[in-house]
Amino acid sequence: MSLSNEVCKTLAFTYRNFIITKRNFFTIFETLFWPVLGLISVGLMGMYLNLEQGYFAFILIGAVTLSVLQVSQLDVAYVLLFDIWSKSLRYTFVSPISSWNMILGSWLFGITRGIVAFAILFFSSMIFFGLNLLIPPPFLILFLFGVFLSAMIIGLITCSLLLIFGYRAEIFAWTLSAIFMLVCGIYYPVSLLPEVVRFISYLIPLTHFLEYYRSFYGFETSFENPLLLGYVLALLQVLFLFFLYFWAFDRARSRGTITQFSE
Amino acid sequence: MHAVVCEDVWMIYKSLKSEKIALKGINLKIPKGKIFGLLGPNGAGKTTLISIMATILKQTRGRVEVLGFDSVRDAKEIRKRINIASGNPNLIWSLTVYENLRYYAMLYGVRDRRVVENLIDEFELREFRDVEFNRLSTGNKQKLLLARAFVNDPELVFLDEPTKGLDPPVAKRLREKIADMQRDLGISVVLTTHYMSEAEMLCERIAFINRGEIVANGSKEELKRMLKMKDKITIEIDAEISMQLPSLEGVYMVERDGKSLSFYVDSAERRLWDVASEVAKLGRIKNIVVREVDLEDVFNELVK
Question: How far is B132 from chain A (nearest CA, A)?
Fold first, then answer.
């Protein structure tokens, strides 16, 4: 296994996602239009409620995180869907790639789109609401990388569900991130949630990344070191989900799901 | 050494509600460096078998060896050395000819862009280089799919009904291209097809598959001999045929179609007089055609 070959195979998915995004007006809309629209509507609501600066930052961070997560997870979630929609899945799976080439390559482009979305939202919140969401850059990078890991988690779940349940599971590509954000405390602290839901939210790394970002605006965190906890949870879940994906892929090969996707 | 060896291969598609047996104990050896045909009616199991050989599917039972590698244990090694093209021309819609080839070349770790440009020339796609896949004609889509199958310089190529739905002249050119590529590169090709003429033109050896089982396997001549049918005599008379004919020596099969009868015989030279004499009792003979049995006749007999 040569490293340069593996890099080339991984970048194939980055290249493909880039070209598809470039050609597709809808995906440009996903990166630019909806995130900005979401930010403005939440911001206007905050102005109407006459929120203090800290609380205003609290809800805008929620809106920004939701958009960045949504945009960056789509690339991973779509990595199988692009092939399924064009009925070309067999040509991807007949090549000597590993699952991680596929996920990592698409995730790299998801990160790029996520950074673009974050930059747009960052400047939009400054321009429209005079709010500076900048925290010291190293901490901001750590926060964003945590969000991107969460995007990979959602993408991996969607891909695994597609291989297990077929076309029906494509709905998760658009809904999972919203469900995640609901449980993670998008516009409210998780302490507000019922105990059972709160327990689930603590298992989701994004909860801790959100609390970490908000801690720079004076909000308390549920645990002492939310960043470390978030990363430990994220890495464990990514590992587990890769195993789930391998299992789902093997199952799809045995059951013939892969050829059904190509017919 | 064989390109592919299948030993007692079973494939059972399982879902929550049902089970469908697609392959029932396939035993098959495909020689290296030749074009091998896999023929059978719709739903016979051709695509399933080819997908297992190409490691896209995993068999329920049995063993498949491709280029000396085990299809389950060494799937990745096999994938480096093989490729596939299907008759359903589907690739990523919004990518151009060049981008599609570049993407698939990258999946094999091929970084050299000249490989892609050479394939574009080789498959006469130069003027469509920057045209998106969904804007190509069916013939050019099929050419692109074939070109894609050569991005990794494979030792073995699976072609699953590669000329399906193409106009006859385009299909003919594509068949010639397949034959040229096989001859020039010395690769092994496994071809599934509905078109008997295609198999007859391209394949050196052929296996017939029906309802998940190999029903015959051999060279074209061996298959015809196996069924002992050598010639076909077709006689047209001036009346509708309703009577049963007595069984005649050397006649293996009789087909009735309106006012004509077709006899599959061991030798037209020896049987023509007897056959014509019997038919003459049914009506006045208008026309007699004698020709050699072709693969289509063998196929029709085998799938009965």
Answer: 10
Angstroms from B105 CA to nearest CA on chain A: 8
Query: Which amino acid does the sequence have at A37?
Result: L
ipTM of this model?
0.92
Task: Supply the Cα-derived Rg of chain B in whole angstroms.
Answer: 23
Domains of chain B and any CATH numbers: 4-224 (3.40.50.300), 227-302 (3.30.70)
Query: Does residue A256 have a pLDDT over 90?
Result: no
Does B190 contact chain A (CB < 8 Å)?
A: no
| pLDDT digit string, tens, across residues A135-164 | 999 999 999 999 999 999 999 999 999 999
Measured from the Cβ of residue A36, the count of other Cβ atoms closer than 10 Å reads: 18
**Radius of gyration of chain A from Cα atoms?**
19
Residue with tokens 């693969």: B295
Q: Residue A181: count other Cβ atoms within 10 Å of its Cβ.
A: 23
Q: Does B142 touch chain A (CB under 8 A)?
A: no
Contacts of B106 in chain A (CB under 8 A): 8-9, 11-12, 15
DSSP alpha helix (H) spans, chain A: 3-23, 25-48, 53-85, 89-93, 99-129, 137-165, 172-184, 195-203, 205-215, 226-255, 257-261
Distance in Å, alpha carbon of A10 to nearest chain B alpha carbon: 8
What gap in Å lies between CA A130 and CA A238, rounded to an integer?
Answer: 37
Q: Annotate A199-231 with three-state secondary structure.
A: HHHHHCHHHHHHHHHHHCCCCCCCCCCHHHHHH
Q: Do residue B90 and residue A88 have CB atoms under 8 angstroms apart?
A: yes
Q: Which of B29-43, B219-233, B284-298 has the lowest mean pLDDT?
A: B219-233
CB pair distance less than 8 Å for A90 and B84:
yes
Torsion of CA B9, A94, A168, B135, to 10 degrees: -130
Cα–Cα distance between B120 and B97 in angstroms, integer? Answer: 8
Q: Where are the beta strands (DSSP E) in chain B?
A: 2-14, 19-31, 35-39, 61-66, 69-70, 82-86, 156-160, 188-193, 205-210, 213-219, 231-237, 251-257, 260-265, 285-292
Say yes or no to pLDDT of B17 above 80: no
One-letter amino acid at B271 equals R
- Which of B47, B94, B107 is nearest residue A259 as measured by Cβ atoms? B47
State pLDDT tens for residues A164-184.
988 888 888 888 888 888 999
Q: Distance (Å) from the C-alpha of residue B118 to the closest C-alpha of chain A?
A: 19
pTM of the complete model:
0.87
Cβ(A131)–Cβ(A57) under 8 Å? Answer: yes
Of A2, A8, A98, nearest to B106 by CB-CB distance is A8
Judge residue A238's burial from the number of C-beta atoms within 10 Å of its C-beta, 0-12 exposed, 13-18 middle, 19 or more buried: middle
Please give the Cα distance from B91 to B96 (Å, whole number).
10
- Give contacts of A253 with chain B, Cβ < 8 Å: 56-58
Cβ-based neighbour number of residue B269 at 10 Å: 11
